[in-house]
Amino acid sequence: MLFGRTPVLPTREEALVGRPERAYAVPERHTVLGNPLLGPYPEHLEVADFALGCFWGAERKFWQTPGVWTTLVGYQGGYTPHPTYEEACSGLTGHTEAVRVVFDPEAVSYTELLKLFWESHNPTQGFRQGNDVGTQYRSAIHTHSPEQAAAAEASREAYQKVLTSSGHGTITTEILPADDRPFYVAEDYHQQYLDKNPAGYCGIGGTGVSCPIGVAKAEG
């Protein structure tokens, strides 16, 4: 699935077996926001999961947003339990590189996070994002409630209209429930990578087309 071949998602039978437990430790707190990475989270907060290419730059987009309580990166949407980064990048787990966003809905709405999601990448590219090619870079939203699902679908429809009028192609973003798509937290060195490595690689870049929903509160 690598070395110039067109990326293809594995079937459940083709996917790597994985392991019953995480193979590495995860830091307790966010290096920028100072809050715990892993739940349980305070009851008034909500969780959103987004995949928009390389998770290093994607995570920074969200932690810079007022109202976001913590962020963490991981692997989601595939078959392999508790994968490693190398396994996810092999294309044999089926996972995306995802960002979990824990937010205060009184301070930032899910709709505003959706606007930031759409405008921070090109959701029409299928199994790639810019120069990053692979099934792990595909665009996806994993929803945690019927309300999130409805908002995500409505935002996709709205953004498709303005993308089409601007000469862009069809959105390939998956919108699927998170219930049966566990979020497997990534290794220590990936968490808040661009805070630890300010000059590090960031492959995130949008289409330049504004999404006609909400009001974005973050800048890259």
What this model shows, in words?
Helices cover 22% and strands 18% of the residues. It has helices at residues 55-63, 85-89, 110-119, 146-165, 193-196, and strands spanning 46-52, 68-76, 96-103, 128-129, 132-133, 139-143, 174-177, 184-185. The strands form 2 sheets. It has a 6-stranded mixed β-sheet, covered by helices on one side. A two-stranded antiparallel ribbon has the order 4-5. The protein contains 5 helices and 8 strands. The protein is globular, with a radius of gyration of 16 Å. It is of the alpha+beta class and 220 residues long. The two termini are 32 Å apart. Keywords: Oxidoreductase. This is Peptide methionine sulfoxide reductase MsrA. It comes from Streptomyces monticola.
Q: How much of the residues is beta strand, in percent?
A: 15-25%
**Main sheet overview:** 6 strands, mixed
Q: If helices are DSSP runs of H or I spanning 4 or more residues, what is the number of helices? A: 5
Report the C-alpha radius of gyration, rounded.
16 Å
Number of strands: 8
**Helix-and-strand structural type:** alpha+beta
Report strand order across the widest sheet. Answer: 7-6-1-3-2-8
Mean pLDDT over the full residue set = 93
Could you give the distance between the termini? 32 Å
Helix content: 10-25%
Low-confidence stretches: 215-220
* Gross geometry: globular
H/E element sequence = EHEHEHEEEHEEH
Organism: Streptomyces monticola
GO molecular function, one term: peptide-methionine (S)-S-oxide reductase activity
Function: Has an important function as a repair enzyme for proteins that have been inactivated by oxidation. Catalyzes the reversible oxidation-reduction of methionine sulfoxide in proteins to methionine.
InterPro entries: Met_Sox_Rdtase_MsrA_dom, Met_Sox_Rdtase_MsrA_sf, MsrA_MetSO_reductase
